[in-house]
Every structure is written in C-alpha cells, then in structure tokens.
Amino acid sequence: MAGASWPSEGCAAWSGEGRREETGVRVAVVGAHGVGKSTLSGELGRRTGLAVPGLDAMRDPVGSPPRSLLECTEAEVLQLSLRRYAQRVEQESATPDMISDGSVLHEWVYAAVRLRRQALSGARQDGVLRDVVDGFLREACARAARTYDLFLLLPVRFPLPPEDRPVSESFRAEAEALTRETTAETGVPVHLLDGTVEDRVAAAASIVGRVRHERVNSP
After folding, report:
1. Domain NadR/Ttd14 AAA: where (predicted)?
2. d(CA 192, CA 64)
3. Cα(5)–Cα(42) distance, rounded to whole angstroms?
4. Given CB 3.0 to 4.6 Å as the disulfide criterion, which of 67, 142, 161, 181 pairs with 14?
C-alpha cells in the first residue's frame, strides 16, 4: 500500500510468534463493502458448524455525541478501528474453529482508503494519522498471518443499490485492491469466490472440508 514498506518476506515476517499449531480451522471472509461477506459467513457457519463471532456496530466514538461512521472525524475513525480490532482479537483468540466476517484487516483497510482519498481530494488532513493507520495495518497484517488458515475473497461484481451507498464505487474498488494486496502479503492461502450465494457457500464449504481433512490426517 502507499506509504507502507513491506519486507521482502511479506508481512508474515512481522508475525513474531509464527503460525499457530492448533487443529481448529480459522477462516477469514474478506472483500469491500457490500460484496456479501456477512451473508457468506453466516451461511458457511451454519453449513460447517464453525462459529461466527458477532461484532458491535462501528459507530458512536467515546467522547463525542452518538454518530455514524460516515459522520466521524479522522481521529474518531481511528478510535473506532482500534475498538473493533481489539474486539476481533479478543473473540478470535478464544475461538479455535471460527469464521471471521471481514478479518482483522477490514477496519484498517477502510481507514487507510478513507484517509488516502481525503488526501487526494485536497482536504486538510493530519499526516500523522495516515502514518498511524499504515502502522496498524501492518500490525493487523502480521496478526492475520499467524491467525487465519485461509482467506475467502469476494470480489466486487455489482454496484450498491442507490438507497444503500455508504461508500462510492471507486472507494469499493480501492478497498478491494488494498485487500488483495494485503492478504497476499500475509502468505495465507487466498481463495477467490464468485457466482451466486449458493455457489460461493458450496465452494467455501468444500475448501473448509479439505483443510479439515488435511489437519486430521497430518502427521
């Protein structure tokens, strides 16, 4: 990503602890806003028995009147991203068999793209915040490298409906590009899923089943 400097080994080089040795399967469903991550996560969880940890709404920063994410300042976006990241880490650390709806990368990708677009628009901006978000994205990348067994990436295929457009189509395209770049840097296998919801669920269930089989039969 712009502003970040990945090592030649990818962000897995920062993972420190290395890959985990558990027998459970941890799946991360990733992609831009509105591509069906929550739908796939829920359906795949029901089909495979994997838990899907719930998340609080990303809104209402501490110290400010209640407000939506879109109404938040740059500093408030950082606060909410930290809150969500901490919640993900706590829940996912306690769940050996699970599906992460978005992964620990999701909020930092959103924040990075939002700050980048504001900078390009010429809006006044705190450059320190961009550096901080880049740093947290690298940290999240390293954590993802040692947490997940596979990524299921859902591409943008259709525009959002006019009545539900919290972000623009160009924002979604940038978020997908950064998600692809960052997941690739983790060294974790990335599977692109396309087609109908049922096509995606069937393909995802097959992938999870294969990983489970390999785990059970590994020496």
Report:
1. 26-200
2. 39
3. 35
4. 142
Is the model more confident about 163 or about 100?
Answer: 100
DSSP string, 69-95: GGG--HHHHHHHHHHHHHHHHHHHHT-
CA 200 to chain centre: 18
Which pLDDT score is estimated for 191?
98
Distance CA 87, CA 73 (A): 21
Give the type of residue at 55: L
DSSP, collapsed to helix, strand or coil, labels residue 28 as strand
Exposure string over 53-80, b if 16+ CB within 10 A, otherwise e: bebeebebbeeeeeeebeebebebbbbb
Number of Cβ within a 10 Å radius of residue 83: 16
Domains by residue range for the chain, with CATH: 21-217 (3.40.50.300)
Angstrom distance (rounded) from CA 133 to CA 111: 7
For 54-65, what is each residue's pLDDT tens digit?
999 999 999 999
pTM score of the predicted model: 0.88
**Residue reference for tokens 């994205």:** 137
Q: What is the DSSP letter of 51?
A: B
